[in-house]
Structures are given as structure tokens and as C-alpha cells.
Design brief:
The structure holds 2 protein chains of 2 kinds. Chain A is mainly α. Helices cover 83% and strands 0% of the residues of chain A. By secondary structure, chain B is an alpha/beta fold. Chain B has an 8-stranded mixed β-sheet with strand order 1-2-4-3-5-6-9-10, with helices on both faces. Chain B has a two-stranded antiparallel sheet with strand order 7-8. The chains are: A mainly alpha, B alpha/beta. The A-B interface holds A 4, 8, 11, 15, 18-19, 22-23, 26-27, 29, 32-37, 39-40, 42-44, 46-47, 50, 65, 68-73, 76, 79-80, 83, 87, 90 and B 26-27, 88-94, 102, 106, 109, 113, 158-160, 163-164, 167-171, 174-175, 177-180, 193-198, 200-201, 204, 208.
Chain lengths: 99, 333
């Protein structure tokens, strides 16, 4: 067996065993709970920082990023509702006469 | 070393090459219709392909020879696909109902209208299959058949993703409040955790087969797709995690779509569930659970070896899986 084939054989054996071992540990509450707590704490900190920034801009009468996002989202919703109306109009039976 | 040098100087692979036209565009999503084969469409009922919300649609049209869409067009099907697009900051408010009811519903209606058909066959892949199953249960009128390809329906399993989303300290509300759209990097890191040694395995495979152009083209195309992810609209993600993952609401029968109760038992069209033995993203039992709930007279289960992506787009899939999908649709038309 050439050295590369030998390397692959040992690598595959190592990889399979390591993956099984890591899978077991990574889904353990001993790992997941602290990871979840760390992620949640980091996210709460970021949300608080964003809130403080937004309050600053809001207090001097400027729209916040969230205000702009809401406005754009409303425009997207309006577009979607117009398309709903277009669909309903297209589904109406053709008029059979005129006034 | 020559093959490795060639590998490093290789241009990025061309993906999503099957010719298609944009037939509808709304907010960030688009509906594409693949151009029919020169001899025309031979199946009157169109197909709507619904990819996962967090991946690019071109996984189903990866590259010539490894494209389900290309193959279906060649078989005479009229094929539509949803491209979910890239959510922007304002899309943090997009809800699960917006995605599953409004978008999927519109895509289905547009596909039917353009194809001149009352109904369409729906193929949902991964989360796209979950969306398709929910839609088919709540709004069955236009669904000719449902094909759920590695689509999770039961979310309480012994996999890592299920354990992670159900861990008590994971506060999904805090993540959504802080990030708006949930960054794809966060989700991709969770997928990497499913098999942390995978990157090393890939490196060894590349060293081993760098001389094989066909392998390398497929490998690079798949890597291009695998690293081209999109963020998840925040409000949609919150409900996805809280109701589907944490409460297993689909199997519990407590899920609603725009206020309409979603009971999988209400699905009566022909259903085919395709599952993969070594799928570590969607454990096969959580995908096969669909068949035990639907009321369809025609329900089939194809269970194959292989993983979540490779088993769908490989050469082997083209020879074995795809013809079975086409046969299912022919019978369901």
C-alpha cells in the first residue's frame, strides 16, 4: 500500500471516530445550554445597544433604522395587495354587455 | 502538483445554467419558468419546485448533467421554480404566513395560469417541502400532487438541530430582536456542527481526486452553492423555531396558516416522500412521518442511501431517483 493510501485509511478511521464522538458531545446539554446562554446574552446586549442608538436618533426627531424598515415593509405589503387585486380582477368573468 | 495548480486557478463553476424566464417578481422573490424543450411540453400539468428558504434555488439546477430541472425539461415537463431571493433589512417583518401562504400561493396560481392548468404538481425540497406540505393541507385546491424531498415534518428527533433548537437557554426572540433577519452565518455554523470534521474530509477528497475534472467541477459547483446561503426573515424564523421545532406543531395538529388550521390529514392528493438514510440535516424518520398522517389514497415512500444533497443531485440520482419522480407525476396527472 502506498503512503497516500495508508494515510487515507487512517484518516478515514480517525474522521469517523472523531465525528461520532463530537456529535455525541455537541448535542449534550452540557454543551448546548452554555452555548445557548452565551448566544442569547450576546444578542440581548446587541439589542440594547441598538435600542440606545435608536433612542438617540429618535430624540432629535430623526427616523430610526427600524422606522425605515417598517415603512419599506409596508410598501412591500401594499405592492403585494395590489397584486392580489390584479389577480382577482383577472379572475372575474368577462363583462357581457355595456351600459 | 499540476492538478492542484489547475484547481487553484480554475474559474468559478457556472451554476443554474438551464434557460429560464422570470415570469413573476414580487418583493425579493421571483418565479422562474424553464424554457421547454424544442419538441414542446408533453405533460399538461405544470411542476412547481419549492426549494429551501435558506438556500439558493439553483441546487435543483446545479450544472449541466447534474440538474434536476434540466432533466425534467428534457422529459417534457413544464417546470417552474421559486427563487426566494435575498431578504433585506425591511424583510425582518416578513412572517411565516407571508412566505407559505402569500408567496407559495401566488407562485402556484401564476404557474397554473401560465400553463393553462387548474392544478400543479408541487415538489418541495427540505424546508421547501415543509412549506409545500403546510400549504397543501390548508389550501389543497390547486395542488395536483405533493412530492416531499427530504422535507422535515416531525421536528422532535435525536439529531443535534432538534436538541439545539429545544435547548432552554436558546432565546430565539433575542436573536431575532438583535439581528432582524437571522444571519446565514449563524445557521451555517449550526450545520457545520452536524459534522465538524467534514471540512477536513473534503480537503482529503480534493487532494485525492484533484486530477479528475468531472469530480472537481461537481465539487466546486456544490461548494459554490453550499457557501451561497441567504439569511432567514426574522419573524418567519421566530415562528418556525417556536412552533415547528419546539412545539412540533405540524404533527401535534396545532399549526395554523393565516388562521386556517393545518391538519396533515387534510392532504388527499397523491403524495411521495423521498428520504435518505444518511441525511444528518433531516433525519429520514422526521421526513417519512408525513406519510403516516396524510389521507391520500396514493402515497409512496422512496428511501435511498446517501445524504441530504448528494443523493438528490448526483449522477446516481439522475439514473435512479429522478425517473421515479417522473413516473410518480405521470401517474398522478
Amino acid at each position: 500500500m502506498n503512503p497516500w493510501e495508508l494515510y487515507k485509511k487512517y484518516f478515514n478511521a480517525w474522521e469517523g471516530a472523531t465525528a461520532t464522538y463530537l456529535e455525541h458531545w455537541l448535542k449534550s446539554p452540557l454543551v448546548l445550554e452554555p452555548a445557548g446562554a452565551w448566544l442569547s446574552a450576546t444578542m440581548k446586549l446587541k439589542a440594547q445597544a441598538d435600542q440606545a442608538t435608536a433612542s438617540f436618533w429618535g430624540n432629535i426627531g430623526l427616523p430610526t433604522k427600524r422606522d425605515q424598515e417598517r415603512a419599506l415593509h409596508k410598501l412591500n405589503q401594499l405592492e403585494s395587495k395590489l397584486l392580489d387585486l390584479e389577480e382577482k380582477l383577472a379572475d372575474l368573468p368577462p363583462s357581457t354587455g355595456s351600459r | 502538483m499540476n492538478p492542484l495548480l489547475r484547481f487553484m486557478s480554475r474559474p468559478p463553476p457556472a451554476v443554474g445554467q438551464t434557460p429560464a424566464d422570470v415570469v413573476h417578481r414580487e418583493n425579493k422573490w421571483r418565479l422562474l419558468r424553464y424554457r421547454p424543450r424544442p419538441s414542446g411540453v408533453s405533460h399538461p400539468t405544470p411542476l412547481l419546485l419549492v426549494p429551501s428558504l435558506i438556500n439558493r434555488h439553483y441546487v435543483l439546477d446545479l450544472m449541466p448533467g447534474k440538474s434536476l430541472a434540466e432533466w425534467l425539461v428534457a422529459q417534457g415537463f413544464d417546470v417552474f421554480i421559486i427563487d426566494w431571493g435575498t431578504p433585506e433589512d425591511e424583510d425582518r417583518f416578513v412572517t411565516f404566513d407571508d412566505v407559505c401562504d402569500r408567496t407559495l400561493g401566488r407562485a402556484l396560481r401564476v404557474a397554473c395560469r401560465l400553463a393553462g392548468s387548474e392544478r400543479a404538481h408541487v415538489l418541495g425540497y427540505c424546508l421547501g417541502g415543509t412549506l409545500a406540505a403546510i400549504y397543501s393541507a390548508a389550501r389543497p385546491e390547486r395542488v395536483a400532487s405533493l412530492l416531499a424531498l427530504a422535507a422535515p415534518v416531525g421536528f422532535h428527533d435525536d439529531g443535534m438541530l432538534s436538541a439545539w433548537t429545544r435547548s432552554k437557554s436558546f432565546d430565539v426572540g433575542a436573536v431575532v430582536a438583535a439581528t432582524g433577519n437571522v444571519p446565514w452565518q449563524l445557521m451555517q455554523s449550526a450545520f457545520h456542527m452536524l459534522r465538524p470534521t467534514l471540512t477536513l474530509s473534503k480537503a482529503v477528497s480534493v487532494l485525492d481526486r484533484a486530477w479528475d475534472d468531472e469530480f472537481m467541477n461537481g465539487f466546486l459547483a456544490l461548494e459554490t452553492w453550499g457557501n451561497d446561503n441567504v439569511s432567514f426573515p426574522g419573524e418567519c424564523y421566530r415562528r418556525y423555531i417556536e412552533e415547528l421545532w419546539r412545539n412540533d406543531a405540524l404533527l401535534a395538529g396545532t399549526f395554523t396558516l393565516s388562521g386556517t388550521p393545518v391538519h396533515l390529514e387534510d392532504i388527499r392528493c397523491p403524495v411521495l416522500a423521498v428520504t435518505f438514510e444518511h441525511d444528518n440535516i433531516v433525519p429520514w424518520k422526521s421526513a417519512a412521518a408525513l406519510l403516516s398522517r396524510v389521507s391520500s389514497e396514493v402515497k409512496q415512500h422512496i428511501h435511498l442511501p446517501g445524504g441530504h444533497v448528494g443523493a438528490v443531485i448526483s449522477k446516481k440520482a439522475a439514473a435512479t431517483l429522478w425517473p421515479q419522480l417522473a413516473e410518480f407525476w405521470r401517474a398522478a396527472s
